[in-house]
Structures are given as structure tokens and as C-alpha cells.
Amino acid sequence: MIFERGHFSSRLLNESVIQESLNESRTFSSKSVYTTKPTVFLSHKHPKDHEQEMRRDLRGVMGLLDELGAKVYIDSMDNAMPQQTAGETALRIKEVIKYCKKFVLFATEKAIESYWCNWELGIGDTYKYSNHIAILPMKERGTYDYLYKGNEYIQIYPRIDYEDWTSRYNTGDLITAGYYVSDPTGKDGVRRLTKLRTWLNQ
């Protein structure tokens, strides 16, 4: 599935957990932070002040990953970033992507159009095997999946998906409801799933 805007904004979040993740992003150092849990670089387009629902979706994604045992880094909260975008910004982002175990692109329509998000995905592609990269696709509410601008991304990279008890394995067994990482469908037409929690720890 391609998530619709608002899917994550209504999640019941532990605000102290979110604040802890934000605080750790502010002081991120590969020598002192994120040493006991899988680490995720969350690439995203920074929501503007009026995009409150998108801001809540971003926080909801952070909360989901944290609930599943990961520590999330987002560059917009990193105090080590220069005030103005510069070469130093790129070097800092490369350092963090290389250090983090997983790379997730929160692929909203605006993120797909963003030079920086695409550049970050390229860095992730350079330093991570494909099984350490996942696309989290999000479309505008009420739009058709085939109009989603990031369809080529999810044909290449694994993506984060949600199963709701309506799909079955090849064996005929129902797929348990929850979040999964789905590999691109192979030539055999088979879609391979890994529970998101398991993927984060691989």
C-alpha cells in the first residue's frame, strides 16, 4: 500500500520518547550516541510551519520506529548542522548516513521532488546494501496509487508496508496485521515480506 497523508498523524505517541529522539538528533555523535539500539537515518522534506498534519505524520513515523526498538536521526534537529546549507552540511549528512544502520526515505510527494532527499538516497545507496534501505511512500489524501510520483522508487527499493489481515502468503495463511518491509516484486511475481521490527534489527 501507499500510505495516505494523515496515516501516522493520529498515532498515540509517547511525547517523552519523541522528545528524547529529537534531543539525541541535536547532539548526535557516532562516538557517544545510539550505541545500544538499531539506528535509522530518516530522510524527509522538512514540513513548513503551516503543514501541521505533515509534521504530525513525521512525528508519528518517528514514534513508530522508536516503538519498534530503533533510534531515529533527523537532520533538521541536528545542532551540528551549519545555519546555512553548505559543503559542511553535506559532509555531516554523509557521516551520519554512513554511521546509521538503516536508511529510510519518508517519500512524500515533496520529498520526491527535493534535491536533498534524492541526494541523501544516493548516499544511502552508496554506503548501504539494499536490504538496509527502505522507502516509506506517502501520497496525498484521496489520490490514486498510480498517480504517486515515487512509484519508480518502490520498484527498485524495499518499502515499508502495512498488512491488515486481508492478504495471504502463498501457503494460504493470512498475513498478520502490522508493519512490514516488502521487497520489490520479483520476476516470479512473489512479494517477500519481513516484519519491520525484524528488519530494523537485521
Using the CA coordinates, give the radius of gyration: 17 Å
User: In percent terms, what proportion of residues is strand?
Assistant: 15-25%
Q: If helices are DSSP runs of H or I spanning 4 or more residues, what is the number of helices?
A: 7
Q: Residue-averaged pLDDT, rounded?
A: 83
Shape label: globular
SSE order in H/E notation?
EHEHEHEHHEHEEEH
Cα(first) to Cα(last) distance is 23 Å
Q: Output the structural class.
A: alpha/beta
Residue runs with pLDDT of under 50 for 5 or more positions? none
- Helix content percent band: 25-40%
Q: How would you characterize the largest beta sheet? A: 5 strands, parallel
How is the largest sheet built, in terms of strand order? 1-5-4-2-3
Number of strands: 8
Topology readout:
Elements: E1 3-4, H1 15-26, E2 39-43, H2 52-67, E3 71-73, H3 87-99, E4 102-107, H4 109-113, H5 115-127, E5 133-139, H6 151-156, E6 159-163, E7 178-182, E8 193-195, H7 196-201
Parallel strand pairs: 1-5, 2-3, 2-4, 4-5
Antiparallel strand pairs: 6-7, 7-8
